[in-house]
Specification:
This protein is mainly alpha-helical and 213 residues long. The protein has 10 helices and no strands.
Length: 213
């Protein structure tokens, strides 16, 4: 069985314990997964970080080439939307971090208006003024089993005896009754203009014929 790519491993085992990773994959891939996990967390902690900062941080931490660092960056950027869209927790966490940082800065400056606005945004975003909604008991929902069948009795309809034979007989019957289609050759239309328009002059006849065409 071929070894999966680093991206495939990260999609399924990004947060798997290191000991389990070593049991499943070569050490080179394990090291790469651990690097990507570490830098994934760095990316979340530094949402405004640039690609250059990411690569510089990765090269400094693990002493790898820029080519390898950019390859890791590509994997992290591929994983971020997938993990972030799995739930709204990622965006909620990022918003809370930004609001709390704003609140702390305003608190140091004793800017009570900004502190109040930050606190209001935090409360509104996290809906702390609304009672928690009751979770749906999805584990108690039993899926409805369906089984394919061609028996019309499940709909309350009695089946027609020998239905396949009846179908074959009807097809044969209507094939015999079908009128054969005869192909005919195209013929020019002969509009006898003098008989149809006796009061028209020849010039008018030519003009009328052009209009008809």
């Amino acid at each position: 069985m071929p070894t999966p790519s680093a991206l495939e491993i990260c999609r399924t085992d990004l947060f798997t314990r290191e000991a389990e990773l070593q049991e499943r994959y070569p050490q080179v891939l394990v090291d790469k997964v651990l690097r990507i996990r570490e830098m994934y967390n760095w990316f979340i902690s530094n949402p405004d970080g640039t690609d250059r900062e990411f690569v510089a941080e990765l090269c400094q931490r693990h002493d790898i080439s820029k080519v390898t660092a950019y390859a890791d960056l590509a994997i992290v950027k591929t994983l971020l939307p997938t993990l972030a869209t799995a739930s709204r927790d990622f965006h909620r966490w990022r918003f809370n971090e930004m609001i709390l940082a704003t609140y702390k800065m305003a608190e140091k400056r004793k800017d009570t208006k900004t502190m109040e606005r930050a606190a209001s945004s935090y409360a509104k975003h996290n809906r702390i003024d609304i009672e928690d909604e009751q979770a749906m008991p999805y584990d108690m929902i039993v899926p409805q089993p369906f089984t394919a069948t061609d028996d019309p009795r499940v709909l309350g309809i009695e089946p027609i005896p020998n239905i396949q034979q009846r179908i074959a007989e009807m097809i044969d019957k209507y094939r015999k009754e079908t009128i054969d289609i005869e192909d005919v050759q195209f013929e020019e239309v002969d509009l006898e203009f003098p008989a149809l328009f006796p009061n028209e002059t020849p010039d008018n006849d030519d003009e009328r014929e052009e209009n008809l065409l």
